[in-house]
Amino acid sequence: MSAPLLEVRDLTISVMRGRERFNAVERVSFSLDAGDAFGVVGESGSGKSLTLRAIMALLPTGARVEEGAVLLDGHVLTQKGRHARAERRARVAMVFQDPLSALNPVRTIGAQVAEVPRHVLGRSRATSRQRALELLGLVGIPEPARRAEAYPHQLSGGMRQRVAIAMALASEPTLLLCDEPTTALDVTVQAQVLDLIDKLREEFSLGVLFVSHDLGVVRELCQRVAVMYTGRLMESGLTPELLQRPLHPYTLGLLKAVVDLDDEVGAVHPIGGSLPDPLDLPRGCSFHPRCQLASAECLVAVPPLVRVRPPEDDAPTTRESACLHADLVSLP
Amino acid sequence: MTEIVPPLHEPGSSDALRVNSLSVSFSNGRRRLSALEDVSLELARGESLGIVGESGCGKTTLARCIVGLQRFEKGEILIDGSLVRRKRTRAQRRAVQLVFQDPYSSLNPRMTIGAMLTQLLVSHDLAHGDDATERSRELLSLVGLTPDAITRYPGSFSGGQRQRIAIARALAVEPHVIVADEPVSALDVSVQATILELFADLRDRLGISLVMISHNLAAVRQVCDRVGVMYLGKFVEVGATEDVFADPRHPYTRALLNAVPHVRRDPPKNRLRLEGEPPSPLSRPTGCSFHPRCPRAEARCSTDEPKLLAVNGLNARISACHFRDDVMPAELASTSGKKE
Asked: Which of A123, A117, A120 is nearest to A170 (CA)?
């Protein structure tokens, strides 16, 4: 079997808070094949964005990879410095939450999209310009030739995000990293952008790694999903299966807490307790103080993410859970 | 153009809030855009109204008018039956309170929670000295916080707790109406539910009326008895929340509902996708302002502006669509993705 497009192996990232350093991401492993969309969901502070930034070698100051590796097509990527970004260039691209801060306000969008073909791929001026128009058309900007002359502030949020996606695609990447790219958009525009990412994934066999706090959005786009809490993966599996039959109490809690349009009025149940202080994570499973299934053994060690199958199901499974009592997790 | 709005409730003293054909426009010196055009609403005591729509539809402008942060050039606002003049009376100011979206920027970081609440109580002459402290503790427990919070600063609270503090502050002056502008958008998904529960609880226990501005339809459905859908500065549909969501009578409402991702079921096939984005209020389309994006539009939609009128056979429902009396055809009504 050939190597997966992206493999993240035991990734541990530490960040500084005040004078103390703590692990904001701990031993995270997953892999992604070409043409697949993989979602990582979690609340703020769960470490999902840091994971994405480590893959792109764009960690903020003070954050560093302590352990683990990121592999692209089976080759380990460098984690630091100029060389790290050069290695990723033209193979990995990223789309951010806020397109306005990702775009240069004083250059036309056509010029910005043409930058990558011109300076990274070394095409001629005319070819780059032509390519930029092609890309703008590809992401659904109407009348690309005219719109290419526009500045970012002249476009709506949805259009800006399309431009950001066009820039990301300019290098013909094999892997597209998305950091909540639809959170700042209206639902109707969010739907359009999700459709666009899905279309591009299929057309170019792109691997898409999609980080979001919104389970519904992930269900729309991603075949597989992993749930993150306090920097650790709690469970992973095929999206519809995982959301219908969670095998970790945190996922179950999150699902019950989410306000969904289908829910009966008053049927939402918040997770008891609150997020632990990352400097002082509970011993063993970090979810145990909020967990109804917790027992003494949950405090002994951090439970590893291991393959499990739902109790009533004999089929082979791709489900993984980091709960010692995964077989007891059930929807009410 | 004046629209005929059939009253959903008998007008009179029972309304905590009434807005009659409100218009607001903004100008940058060269061009003028109308943010609100002839908007009317009424809110009974203890009732909760959700206002939904895309960004730029005027929902926040409406909220700001209601609380007195925004001047309006036409129309009138009545609070507890009394007309709001240019300068609001003290009673009118107390009666309507606002809860902001972002609890990180709406609380003074250098003031303890207790100092903030007692200052408010004293300045409104509601309580003094030890009574004010005691009342502050009561307010905090009312919103589900421990009374020892009065000695702490906003910085030591999480987003959800801060939003509770902001709600306690709004409640301090014993308002009749709370206007909440996107009160859960800045919060984590697992916390949103608790704040929505708190709003529902306050409405039921204290009989407070609530106007909740949100783009989150699911959140509105959890809390609001009625919902109004806005598009380009106007209501396009208003009715009881359950009814509107189950059987929308404006294509825009249907499209909004279709665009919401579901957590517990697969995305429906062949659903209606709205193309494009809301047009700029600077160049409002002729006729029905939704017609360029509307799958249902016919020739007359681009010339005749539909009025906001009662829908035949549906209780207390108004819609601004020429086809308001038709049940939405199948391709528009395909939100029913079956569970697998």
From this structure: A117
* Domain span including residue B302: 15-110+153-263+271-319
Q: How confident is the model at residue B5 (pLDDT cuts 50, 70, 90)?
A: very low
- Tell me the two tokens of residue A183: 């959170």
Whether B114 has a pLDDT exceeding 90, the answer reads yes
3-state helix, strand, coil in chain A (%, to 5): 35, 20, 40
Confidence check on the interface: ipTM exceeds 0.85, yes or no: no
Spans of chain A, pLDDT less than 70:
1, 310-316, 331-332
Report yes or no on B38 lying in a domain: yes
- Number of folded domains in chain B? 1
CA–CA dist B95, B115 (Å, integer): 22
Residues β-bridged to residue A235: A227, A321
Tell me how far apart the alpha carbons of residues A226 and A24 are, in angstroms, rounded to a whole number: 16
What pLDDT score does B9 carry?
Answer: 41
Residue B73: CB atoms within 10 Å: 10
The tens digit of pLDDT for each residue in A44-61 reads 889 999 999 999 999 999
**A87 CB within 8 Å of a chain B CB:** no
Q: Does B217 touch chain A (CB under 8 A)?
A: yes
Residue A300 lies inside a defined structural domain of this protein = yes
Residues of B in contact with A244 (CB under 8 A): 264
Encode pLDDT of B329-338 as tens digits. 645 543 333 3
d(CA B291, CA A228): 43
Strand order, beta sheet including B74-79: B32-44, B15-27, B74-79, B82-83
Q: What is the CATH number for B86?
A: 3.40.50.300
- Nearest by CB to A188, from B218, B259, B267: name it: B259
